[in-house]
Amino acid sequence: MARVLLLFGGRSSEHEVSCASAVSVHDALIDGGHRVIPVGIDREGIWHLIEPTFRPFTTEGREVEMSVPSGDLHVAENRIEFDVVFPVLHGPQGEDGTIQGLLEACDIAYVGCGVLGSALAMDKDMAKRLVHAAGLETTPWVSITREMWDNDSDSVLQSAQSRIGVPAFVKPSAQGSSIGISFVDAASDLADAIVAAFRYDSKVLVEKAVDAREIEVAVLDGPKASVPGEVILTSGFYTYDAKYADGSSRFEVPAELSDSASKRVRILAEDVFAELGLTGLARVDFLYDRVSRRFLFNEVNTLPGFTSISGFPKMWLASGMTYAELCSHLVDAAINRHEERRRFAVR
Ligand SMILES: Nc1ncnc2c1ncn2[C@@H]1O[C@H](COP(=O)(O)OP(=O)(O)O)[C@@H](O)[C@H]1O
Ligand SMILES: [Mg+2]
User: Fold this and answer.
1) Same structural domain for residues 32 and 94?
2) Which one of 122, 273, 292, 347 counts the least CB within 10 Å of its CB?
3) Are 8 and 99 found together in one domain?
4) What kind and span of H or E run contains 100?
5) Where residue 194 sits, what CATH number does that domain have?
6) Which ligand is closest to the CA of 298, given by its number?
7) Ligand nearest to the CA of 177
8) Is the C-beta atom of 127 inside 6 A of ligand 1?
9) Is residue 325 pLDDT above 90, yes or no?
10) In terms of C-beta density within 10 A (0-12 exposed, 13-18 middle, 19 or more buried), how is residue 325 classed?
11) Percent of the chain clearing pLDDT 70 (strictly above)
12) Pocket test for ligand 1, best of 200, 298, 299 (most atoms within 8 A of CB)
């Protein structure tokens, strides 16, 4: 049994998704015999102790403070004891290494990737650079910084058109849930799409749009890959609404792949996990090019959607692990990793 500080919400455009994931993780941890301290981070960044019987989770409740660097957690005068943090935070300010850095500085055990792995995985441009440098295939892309765009947008556009062309996907480098992403079919729409993506980040990617199946693999320490799953869309691409709202997508697991293709993508997912130096968990997403029949690395999520109907837990379910076992496994791995780190020599 561990005392788990469940952190969710956050100052991210994926705030609601995080609240939904947290309900499922909360219940699974209770099923697994753990004690849970649910703390919701509101949109201003304030931490609140929430009442877990109120569903869906919100981020309202008595204010909680964590002292740095002691890592002590207080509600008013009372100190709350815990053993490990389970951050169910998606997107910037949670999945990107910032919370992980805070927890490292306070010498606290936490579930998931460390600072570097989280930061690399959050930045699609950096993740693709490393995966590409390791000799794995990715979708062709160019990255554009705000400075490049402000200095000379015409030559940036020209270069994106000649190197990538249309159709293309334009996306902020560090976002999630398809926020700020556009599909661009006509070259004349490229500039508007780039400007739209710059609303969310100071670096934007223009990527070749591939006609592909979306194959995902869940990975745990080892690295150990689950059976692959597939996002099946009835129309368009995997937008925010398709992910959460309008029912135009479903997740099929196991993905309908030949044994050899399934094995190939599992190995690729493990390679990505290792190349990016990830720990704990990750969902590695591929585009399976219908023409070349090759798996192209798209992106990696180090705190993927975690509701009981999300892809990550579903893939482990199909691989023979219950949701409660998965959550307990992640908590144990976090505690072990923290103990290992503590054994490093300091001089
Ligand atoms: N290069 C691409 N080719 C085809 N479809 C893409 C491409 N890039 C993104 N997409 C579509 O857009 C969706 C969201 O893009 P993704 O890079 O996964 O960002 P997010 O982090 O928001 O999930 C994908 O699930 C897919 O449907
Ligand atoms: Mg995605």
Assistant:
1) yes
2) 347
3) yes
4) helix 98-105
5) 3.30.1490.20
6) 1
7) 1
8) no
9) yes
10) middle
11) 98
12) 298
